[in-house]
Recover the amino acids of this structure.
């Protein structure tokens, strides 16, 4: 620049400074822009998320949040591509069972020192366990759902079975007996939608004391399919193959696929996630009466494994403090209730769970809220290599077992022998 007029030097300096102020997600006049990728998909949920973003933007003109719509169907691969390409959103909506590889891979920010004390204390430790990997916290667990039994009220009353409650649930054996009494006339007592059999089996097995994954003193994880792990799959197999109280045709179905048959009276009960109540409310024929029952309990009571929905911050985000401030706003107790109602799920926050709207008897809200204390981190939550174990070993093994193609001994051998070979590659 030597020998150039001073006005040119001043112009160049102005351009450089303007470029610095506008980079890294900034906006005009020094305004910061945060990209928030949401996976909300139901109309009510999308509306609530967008409304909260508008409220934040109205109150924070210097830190604008841009709503980005994502999809549960492709979120893992989409995030991986965006992380590797340096284009990840600042704030990431996901599920806790999808975080392990991203956390260990250095793609997510450790939130330990970023989150306010209010939020840390309001969410129970058992929920934080779902997003803790090593010594760091890589997501805020904010929405969760137990698995429940959605039942046809008329068929329940006609059968004369005892109606279970959270205070007095069915045991797994009682559930089997009730399913038999609810069968007949061409209908089945229960329809298990097991297109994805692994998480349903493992998470419900916690009630019987099942763990499946065992971490040794050296931190290595091994699979042991013990007696407590066998209670749920054995019950289900007996319902299908011995009692004929469970429909074999729904084993490869998703939850939504069972609803037409449920409405038609072909199945008296369907085990589903709590949020399916919204679809049932919208799709049930006029006059169809249904109710929510707790899932069966075992040696560990109403314990269930869950993988909560989470909010994380990208490690590459240049505005982590501002992103954490938005999370604090989004997850204020009153806002957490709004998000839960929009998704027909339960909030993790203890103050939000006290909201009267979540304790109504209508649509089974009170039943679901009563189950919240028994929700635990899903057994596979922090197991590296779990996705491959699930896809290549556990899913085909459970599918063959439930269809009657293999027995319990072969199921155990495949889960343990083949499964431990897969996990070993991630623990070297």
């Amino acid at each position: 620049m030597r020998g150039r007029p001073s006005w040119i030097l001043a112009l160049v300096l102005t351009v450089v400074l303007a470029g610095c102020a506008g980079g890294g997600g900034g906006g005009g006049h020094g305004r910061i822009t945060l990209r928030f990728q949401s996976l909300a998909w139901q109309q009510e949920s999308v509306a609530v998320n967008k409304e909260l973003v508008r409220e934040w933007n109205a109150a924070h003109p210097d830190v604008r949040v841009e709503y980005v719509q994502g999809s549960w169907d492709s979120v893992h691969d989409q995030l991986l591509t965006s992380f590797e390409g340096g284009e990840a959103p600042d704030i990431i909506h996901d599920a806790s069972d999808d975080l392990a590889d991203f956390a260990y891979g250095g793609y997510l920010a450790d939130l330990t020192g970023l989150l306010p004390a209010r939020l840390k204390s309001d969410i129970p430790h058992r929920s934080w366990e779902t997003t803790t990997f090593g010594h760091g916290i890589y997501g805020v667990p904010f929405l969760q759902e137990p698995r429940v039994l959605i039942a046809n009220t008329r068929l329940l009353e006609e059968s004369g079975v005892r109606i279970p409650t959270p205070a007095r649930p069915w045991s797994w054996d009682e559930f089997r007996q009730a399913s038999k009494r609810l069968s007949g006339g061409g209908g089945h007592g229960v329809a298990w939608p097991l297109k994805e059999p692994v998480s349903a089996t493992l998470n419900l097995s916690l009630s019987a004391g099942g763990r499946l994954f065992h971490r040794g003193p050296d931190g290595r994880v091994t699979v042991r399919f013990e007696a407590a792990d066998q209670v749920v799959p054995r019950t289900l197999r007996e319902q299908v193959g011995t009692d004929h109280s469970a429909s074999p045709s729904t084993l490869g179905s998703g939850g939504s696929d069972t609803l037409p048959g449920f409405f038609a009276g072909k199945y008296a009960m369907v085990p589903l996630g709590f949020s399916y109540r919204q679809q049932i409310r919208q799709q049930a024929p006029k006059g169809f009466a249904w109710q929510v029952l707790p899932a069966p309990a075992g040696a560990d009571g109403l314990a269930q494994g869950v993988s909560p929905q989470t909010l994380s911050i990208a490690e590459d985000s240049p505005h982590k403090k501002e992103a954490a401030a938005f999370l604090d706003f989004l997850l204020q107790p009153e806002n957490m209730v709004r998000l839960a109602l929009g998704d027909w799920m339960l909030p993790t926050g203890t103050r939000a769970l006290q909201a009267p709207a979540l304790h109504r008897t209508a649509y089974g809200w009170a039943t679901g809220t009563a189950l919240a204390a028994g929700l635990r981190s899903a057994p596979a939550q922090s197991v590296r290599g779990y996705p491959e174990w699930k896809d290549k070993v556990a899913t085909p093994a459970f599918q063959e077992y439930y269809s009657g193609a293999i027995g319990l001994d072969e199921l155990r051998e495949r889960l343990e022998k083949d499964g431990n070979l897969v996990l070993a590659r991630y623990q070297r």
Q: What stands out?
A: Confidence is low (pLDDT under 50) at residues 1-24. The chain is about 40% helix and 15% strand. The longest helix spans residues 386-403.
